[in-house]
Amino acid sequence: GLRAALAIKTLTEGYVEAAATQATRIYAESQERIDSATALVVGFTALAFVASCLIVWLLIYRDIVSRAQSLIQVTRRLASGDLAAPVQTDGDDELTDVAEALERFRLNAERVLEQERALFAMNRDLTRTNKELGQFAYIASHDLQEPLRIVASYCELLERRYSAKLDDDAREFI
Question: 23: pLDDT confidence band, cut at 50, 70 and 90?
Answer without folding.
Answer: very high
